[in-house]
C-alpha cells in the first residue's frame, strides 16, 4: 500500500474562475489535496476555451481545462442554492475564490462571509487589486494589470521606435496562481499552529510587480536614478540561425569578451573597458547576426556553451517535446483525459513520489458528495499568539542573484530564520548591480536589488573553497531544517555536498536545489539566467511584435522559479510533518517556466495549432492594445525623460464593456457598426479599431483616458514606468511598500509581499538586508566557536566583512 500523498489531509473548495485559480488548485491537487471544483450548470468557462480558437466540440472539454483540472472533482450548484455548500465548506480546510466567478456575487460566499461563517477556513482571494483599497472594484484584465505594474516596459524591453511590449501568454494569471498556491499552503501551515483560518488576500497587481520588475522603486530611492530609462533590444538576444531561432546572452564583461572571440572579432574588446562594446551593439549587431545566420541552432549553442556564454534554442509549442534535453528527462507526459502532451510537475522529490494526475472530472460528476454527511470543523477559541507559518524554522540560504533569494525572501518575511551564505571572494551577484564605483567605501553594500531581495535575513561569509570553510559549513548544515541552493549542480557536487552527503549530516533536512535545467540531462551544466530560461520554455516565443524576432521578457524566469520552489518546499514540509522524513526537492528553473507556459504546448499537441506572439493583442480581449497618449502636461506633452513615449493599455473583454467604451468615446460612426457588437467582429476589425481608438487616445492625456474609461467599467491602465510604482494609490493604500532603514543606504521603500494575511494584522515585519558577514559572530558562536577562533578565521580569510577579489 502506497503512503498517503503529502497534502492528502486537505480538502480544498474551488470557487474561482480563470487560469489563476485553476492553476493554484492544480498545484494543490498535484500535491495530493482533495480539490472540489464548484460549477454552475453552465460549467466553468475554461471547459470551452482554446487560446488558438480551436473548435471545442459540444459535450467535450477544452484541452486547457483537462490540464488544469486533472485530479479534481466537480460539483454543480446554481448561484441561488449556495446553502447546499454548507456541509462541504464546514468540513473543508481552504477555499480558493476569485472575483470572476459567478459565485462571487453570492452574499454568503464572499471572502468575509465565508471567514465569518467558517472561522477554521483559509479563504484565499485572488483579485486584480486586492479586496480593499480605492481600486478594489475597478475593472481589470491580466494585460492592464501588467501595464499598471510597470512590467510592460520592464527592464527597458522592446525597441524604442515601437510600442512597449507586454509579456505574452497571460503570464500574470499563471504566476498569480502559483503565488496563491504557496500562500494558501503557508496559511494552512499557520492554521495548524493557531487552530484558526484566515483570509489570504492576494493582489495580482502586486504579484506582477514581484514577477515582472526587480525592485525599481528601491533602486530609484537609493541610487537617485531609475535602474533603466531607455527601451532597447538586447544584443545578441534572439537571432535567426540557419535552421531556427537561437538566443545568446552577454550580461557580464567576460561574456561580452568571449562573444567577441566567438564571432571572430577579438579586436572589438577594449581591455581597459570591456563593457564598452555594449554602447556599440547597434553598430556591431549585423555582424553578430550574420555569424549566427550561417550556422545551425545546435552549432551556435554548442560553441556558445564552450565559452560559457548563456544560450538556448528558442522553444515553442511545436519544438518543445522533441527537444533532446526534455525527452531525456521525461519533461512532458500524456494528459490522462485526452492523451495530449503536457509538462510534468515543476518539482520532484527523492523521498516520495507525487501522485500521478488523474482524469479531469465531467461536469457535476461528484455532485452527490454534497449530500454526504460530513464532520464540521471547529476553530480554536483562543488562537496561538503568533501565526507566522515558518517561525522556528532555520534555513540555510545558499542562493544568489534572483531566483533563489526570491524564494528564501518569502520564508524570511513569514518568520523563518534565514542565513544567507556568501564569501568575501564570491558574494551574491546582486551586490554588483548598482552602478556604484568600486572605489566607493562599502560599495558592495549599496545595491538596491540585493537590499530588496534580502530583507529579514542574516548574513554569514564562509569560503567553502577552503578545508576549514567546508568543515564549518557542514557544522552549520547540522543546525538547519532547510537548505536552499541555486548554484549550477557541479558547485556542491565538487565539494562533496550533494543531497546524500547533506542528509548524512542532518537526516530530516529538506534540501531544495534550483538548478537551471535540472540535475541531469544534456543541459545540466548550461548557464541559466532568467532570459535563458525564458528562451528555453516558450515564454520568449510569445513575447514581441509578430513581424520581428521574439523579445526576451528578461524578468519572470527568476521569480517564477522562486515561487515554484517554495511550493515544492511546502509540500515537502507537509510530508516531513507527518513522517519526520526529509527529502531532496529538485525544482529546476526551466520546469517551473514550462509549467506557466503550458498553454502553447497543450494547444499544439491537442489541436496542432502553434500559438504565436501578437504584439500587445491577446487571445481573450478584443480590442486589446497599447495606445499612445498626448503626454504629461508638466513635461510639455512628453514623458519624464523628454520623449513622446506615454501609453495607455485598453482591453475589452465583454460585449458590455465594448458598449460602454463606445458610449464613453462619443459613439462615433465607425464604432456603431453592428458587426463590432461581438467579440469575433471586433477581432476581425482589430486594425480599424486600433487606428480609430488610437487617434482618440492620442488627443488626450493618459489620466484623461483612464478616468473616462474606468468610470464606465472598461479595463484600462497607464503604462507605468516601473520606478513609479509607489505613485499608485492602490499600492499605497495596501501598504505594499515598507520604509526600511539600512545602516549604509539610509531609508528607502521596499516591497513587502503581494499577499496580505488577516491573521497578521500588523503587516509584515521588515528588517534591512544584512551587511556582508554581519552575523558571523552570532552564528559561529552558536556552533561553539570562541572569540579567538572567530578572529583566527577572519585572519585566515575564511570569513570576513569586506570583499576581497
Task: Write a structural description.
By secondary structure, the chain is an alpha/beta fold. The strands form six sheets. Strands 3-2-1-4-5-6-24 form a seven-stranded mixed beta sheet, with helices on both faces. It has a seven-stranded mixed beta sheet with strand order 12-18-17-16-13-14-15, sandwiched between helices. The longest helix is centred in the first third of the chain and has 24 residues, at 171-194.
Record keyword descriptors for this entry.
seven-stranded mixed beta sheet, 13% strand, 28 helices, 33% helix, 805 residues, alpha/beta
Summarize the structure.
This protein has 805 residues and is an alpha/beta fold. It contains 28 helices and 24 strands. Helix content is 33%, strand content 13%.
Secondary-structure topology with pairs:
Elements: E1 11-15, H1 19-30, E2 34-39, H2 63-68, E3 73-76, H3 86-91, E4 94-98, H4 111-117, E5 122-127, H5 142-149, H6 171-194, E6 198-203, H7 204-212, H8 216-223, E7 237-241, E8 244-248, H9 253-262, H10 281-293, H11 297-306, E9 311-313, H12 324-329, E10 332-334, E11 341-343, E12 348-349, E13 394-398, H13 403-413, E14 417-422, H14 448-453, E15 458-461, H15 467-478, E16 482-485, H16 489-494, H17 499-505, E17 510-513, H18 530-535, H19 557-579, E18 583-586, H20 589-596, H21 598-607, E19 624-628, E20 647-651, H22 655-664, H23 679-684, H24 686-698, H25 702-710, E21 716-718, H26 729-733, E22 737-742, E23 746-751, E24 755-757, H27 776-782, H28 787-795
Helix pairs in contact: 1-6, 5-7, 6-7, 6-19, 13-19, 19-20
Amino acid at each position: 500500500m502506497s503512503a498517503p500523498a503529502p497534502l492528502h489531509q486537505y480538502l480544498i473548495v474551488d470557487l474561482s474562475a480563470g487560469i489563476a485559480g485553476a492553476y493554484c488548485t492544480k498545484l494543490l491537487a498535484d500535491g495530493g489535496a482533495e480539490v472540489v471544483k464548484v460549477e454552475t450548470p453552465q460549467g466553468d468557462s475554461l471547459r470551452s476555451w482554446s487560446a488558438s480558437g480551436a473548435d471545442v466540440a459540444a459535450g467535450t472539454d477544452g484541452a486547457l481545462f483537462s490540464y488544469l483540472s486533472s485530479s479534481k472533482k466537480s460539483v454543480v450548484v446554481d448561484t441561488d442554492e449556495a446553502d447546499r455548500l454548507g456541509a462541504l465548506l464546514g468540513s473543508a480546510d481552504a477555499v480558493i475564490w476569485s472575483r470572476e466567478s459567478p459565485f462571487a456575487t453570492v452574499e454568503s460566499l464572499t471572502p468575509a462571509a465565508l471567514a465569518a461563517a467558517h472561522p477554521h477556513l483559509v479563504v484565499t482571494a485572488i483579485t486584480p487589486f486586492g479586496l480593499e483599497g480605492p481600486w478594489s472594484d475597478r475593472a481589470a484584465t491580466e494585460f492592464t494589470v501588467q501595464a499598471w505594474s510597470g512590467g510592460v516596459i520592464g527592464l527597458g524591453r522592446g525597441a524604442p521606435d515601437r510600442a512597449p511590449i507586454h509579456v505574452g501568454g497571460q503570464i500574470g494569471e499563471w504566476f498569480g496562481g502559483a503565488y496563491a498556491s504557496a500562500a494558501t499552503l503557508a496559511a494552512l501551515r499557520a492554521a495548524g499552529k493557531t487552530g484558526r483560518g484566515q483570509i489570504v488576500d492576494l493582489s495580482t497587481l502586486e504579484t506582477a510587480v514581484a514577477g515582472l520588475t526587480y525592485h525599481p522603486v528601491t533602486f530609484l530611492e537609493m541610487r537617485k536614478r531609475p535602474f533603466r530609462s531607455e527601451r532597447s533590444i538586447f544584443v545578441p538576444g534572439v537571432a535567426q540561425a540557419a535552421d531556427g531561432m537561437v538566443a545568446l546572452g552577454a550580461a557580464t564583461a567576460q561574456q561580452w569578451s568571449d562573444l567577441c572571440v566567438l564571432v571572430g572579432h577579438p579586436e572589438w574588446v577594449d581591455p581597459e573597458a570591456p563593457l564598452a562594446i555594449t554602447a556599440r551593439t547597434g553598430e556591431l549587431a549585423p555582424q553578430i547576426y550574420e555569424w549566427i545566420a550561417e550556422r545551425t541552432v545546435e552549432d551556435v549553442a554548442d560553441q556558445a556553451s564552450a565559452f560559457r556564454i548563456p544560450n538556448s534554442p528558442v522553444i515553442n509549442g511545436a519544438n518543445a517535446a522533441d527537444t533532446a534535453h526534455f525527452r531525456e528527462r521525461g519533461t512532458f507526459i500524456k494528459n490522462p483525459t485526452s492523451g495530449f502532451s503536457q509538462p510534468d510537475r515543476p518539482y520532484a522529490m527523492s523521498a516520495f513520489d507525487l501522485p500521478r494526475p488523474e482524469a479531469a472530472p465531467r461536469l457535476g460528476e461528484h455532485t452527490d458528495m454534497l449530500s454526504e454527511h460530513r464532520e464540521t470543523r471547529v476553530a480554536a477559541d483562543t488562537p496561538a499568539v503568533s501565526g507566522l507559518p515558518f517561525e522556528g524554522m532555520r534555513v540555510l540560504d545558499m542562493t544568489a542573484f534572483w531566483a533563489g533569494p526570491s524564494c528564501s525572501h518569502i520564508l524570511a518575511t513569514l518568520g523563518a530564520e534565514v542565513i544567507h551564505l556568501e564569501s568575501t571572494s564570491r558574494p551574491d551577484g546582486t551586490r554588483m548591480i548598482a552602478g556604484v564605483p568600486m572605489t566607493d567605501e562599502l560599495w558592495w553594500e549599496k545595491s538596491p536589488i540585493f537590499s530588496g531581495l534580502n530583507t529579514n535575513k542574516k548574513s554569514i561569509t564562509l569560503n567553502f573553497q577552503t578545508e576549514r570553510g567546508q568543515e564549518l559549513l557542514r557544522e552549520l548544515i547540522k543546525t538547519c531544517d532547510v537548505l536552499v541552493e541555486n548554484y549550477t549542480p557541479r558547485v556542491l557536487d565538487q565539494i562533496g555536498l550533494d543531497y546524500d552527503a547533506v542528509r548524512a549530516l542532518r537526516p530530516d533536512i529538506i534540501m531544495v536545489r534550483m538548478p537551471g535545467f535540472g540535475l541531469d540531462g544534456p543541459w545540466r551544466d548550461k548557464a541559466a539566467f532568467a532570459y535563458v530560461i525564458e528562451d528555453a520554455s516558450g515564454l520568449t516565443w510569445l513575447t514581441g511584435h509578430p513581424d520581428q524576432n521574439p523579445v526576451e521578457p528578461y524578468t519572470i524566469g527568476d521569480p517564477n522559479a522562486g515561487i515554484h520552489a517554495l511550493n515544492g518546499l511546502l509540500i515537502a514540509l507537509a510530508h516531513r510533518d507527518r513522517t519526520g522524513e526529509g527529502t531532496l526537492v529538485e525544482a529546476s528553473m526551466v520546469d517551473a517556466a514550462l509549467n506557466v507556459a503550458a498553454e502553447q504546448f497543450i494547444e499544439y499537441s491537442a489541436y496542432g495549432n502553434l500559438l504565436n506572439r501578437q504584439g500587445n493583442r491577446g487571445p481573450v480581449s478584443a480590442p486589446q492594445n497599447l495606445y499612445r497618449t498626448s503626454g504629461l502636461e508638466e513635461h510639455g506633452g512628453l514623458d519624464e525623460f523628454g520623449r513622446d513615449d506615454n501609453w495607455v493599455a485598453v482591453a475589452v473583454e465583454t460585449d458590455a464593456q465594448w458598449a460602454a467604451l463606445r458610449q464613453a468615446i462619443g459613439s462615433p460612426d465607425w464604432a456603431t457598426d453592428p458587426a463590432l457588437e461581438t467579440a469575433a467582429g471586433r477581432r476581425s476589425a482589430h486594425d480599424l479599431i486600433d487606428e480609430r481608438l488610437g487617434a482618440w487616445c492620442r488627443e488626450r492625456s493618459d489620466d484623461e483616458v483612464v478616468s473616462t474609461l474606468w468610470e464606465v467599467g472598461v479595463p484600462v491602465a497607464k503604462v507605468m514606468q516601473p520606478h513609479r510604482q509607489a505613485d499608485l494609490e492602490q499600492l499605497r493604500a495596501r501598504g505594499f511598500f515598507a520604509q526600511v532603514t539600512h545602516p549604509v543606504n539610509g531609508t528607502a521603500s521596499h516591497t513587502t509581499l503581494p499577499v496580505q494575511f488577516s491573521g497578521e494584522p500588523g503587516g509584515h515585519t521588515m528588517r534591512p538586508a544584512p551587511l556582508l558577514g554581519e552575523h558571523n559572530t552570532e552564528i559561529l558562536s552558536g556552533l561553539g566557536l570562541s572569540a579567538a577562533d572567530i578572529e583566527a578565521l577572519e585572519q585566515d580569510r575564511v570569513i570576513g566583512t569586506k570583499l576581497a577579489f
